[in-house]
Write a structure and sequence with these properties.
Number of domains: 2
Distance between the termini: 40 Å
Helix content: over 70%
Number of helices: 7
Structural class: mainly alpha
Largest sheet: none
Strand content: under 5%
Length: about 150
């Protein structure tokens, strides 16, 4: 499994960097749809592990000893936890991402943004503004890259 994850990471990294070097618009939906459900799950698993690790490491630097588990929860801990944790089963998030990427207008929304948008949709939040902003950011990033040519 470790070798599979390593190969997956390296191939994804190379694809992303080749597109960036060529300064093409990166179609995240195309990549997502090219993966099978197992590969999508592995990606989300890595996303979850990375987020949890980052949350834990950051907490070591911005929290005093004992603040992590104070009751009631400190506002700064709650805000970061609510913004970074996924809270739902990866299979459910995977299906919502797949559904969101069916809309061609969402094709260029980054994996990071689409994961959190999916989580918020499952939570019952109105995601229209998040989708609009993610599309706008994807377009602005592309235009900025074109100016650098």
């Amino acid at each position: 499994m470790l070798i599979f994850r390593l190969k997956f990471f390296l191939i994804s990294f190379l694809i992303l960097n080749l597109k960036i070097i060529a300064q093409e618009r990166y179609n995240y939906a195309e990549v997502w749809n090219g993966w099978n459900n197992n590969t999508r799950y592995v990606y989300l698993w890595g996303f979850l592990d990375g987020g949890d690790a980052t949350y834990g490491i950051a907490g070591e630097y911005w929290l005093n000893e004992g603040d992590w588990f104070k009751e009631p929860e400190l506002p700064k801990v709650k805000i970061v936890r609510e913004k970074t944790h996924l809270f739902f089963e990866l299979e459910v998030i995977r299906e919502v991402i797949t559904e969101l990427y069916k809309d061609p207008a969402n094709s260029y929304i980054s994996f990071t943004k689409i994961v959190y948008i999916s989580r918020d949709k499952i939570k019952g939040d109105d995601i229209e503004e998040s989708i609009r902003l993610a599309r706008k950011e994807a377009n602005e990033n592309y235009l900025m890259m074109q100016k650098r040519k």
